[in-house]
Amino acid sequence: MIKIMKRNIEHIVSEKLNSKIIDLRRIETGLFNDTYFVKANKVVSELKSKPVNTNEFIIRIAPKDDSGFLFYEVNMMDQEPNIHEIVSQKTSIPIPQIYEFDNSRKIIERNYLIMEKMEGIALSQAYFLTQIQRKNIFHQIGQYLQELHNIHASEYGYLGEHRPMEPQKTWWEAFTIMWSKLIDDVFNCGVYSESEAQKYKDLLLSHREYFVARNSVPSSLLHMDIWAQNIMVNEGGMITAIVDWDRALWGDPEIEFTVLDYCGISTPSFWEGYEGQQADNKSSKVRDLYYLLYEHQKYIPINIWRRKNKIKAQSYKRDCVRLFKKLEKIG
Known about the structure:
The chain has helices at 2-17, 80-90, 131-149, 171-188, 194-206, 209-212, 253-262, 268-274, 282-297, 299-306, 310-328, and strands spanning 21-26, 34-47, 50-61, 98-102, 112-116, 121-122, 152-153, 219-222, 231-233, 239-242, 249-251.
């Protein structure tokens, strides 16, 4: 597998950069795509009419088509170029430039991106940071996400080029579709029975009132994968890049806040940077449980299809059942 991947990257570098590889290193923090640092034997001045002037690149290669995907993961790399363009134009968020996206399958049999190499290392590996520096990083994340959430669209859902769903006019309609499709994934991997899947779909419908109250909230651009491995920092405690935007979603920022809680990012310093506070009432707590389940349930099919770990998948199911029981008690 390693030799095959090396040959794939050699083909990309030869065809797209007209160069040879003098240094190739796998970036281990990537869990979905195969990501590599590549140093070419000569400086590339431009790529696809974009100024480059470097011989150092990041190449991200999408998984094989038969890897086993959640409904929104199919071809989700397709939306990254446009998302990067929007974020770079409308915010001060440090984000790598995408020099080229290729889904033609002419060079290799997988989609891939050639990207700018950003300075810094993943926050998950930045053991040298002081407590003060870490607090400052969470403050910066808050500031950046406030900017991101101020980018709005007229529709809700996964609106990118991969189109795993039809755009919707309200957040409730979008989330209902997202929820149903994710439940279908858990059913299709063999962990939910048909009756369980239907029960959990019906449960959301029974709590419609808690969501329609948020229908006036604008559709915001959400990253949906902010965690320590996707935040790059330098030795001075500054964020140098936020990466991996392929899971981006347009919707209610509340769902992003739940993911931030899940990933340990939603700290007091984050909220100071965001200049806001998380809602704390019955309605928001109900929605938070659904958003937590949306995040947690995905690991059931992921463990069945990609990690081949049925025991872990059942453990995630038990966690989810406990959360469902909480929701069943709410009128």
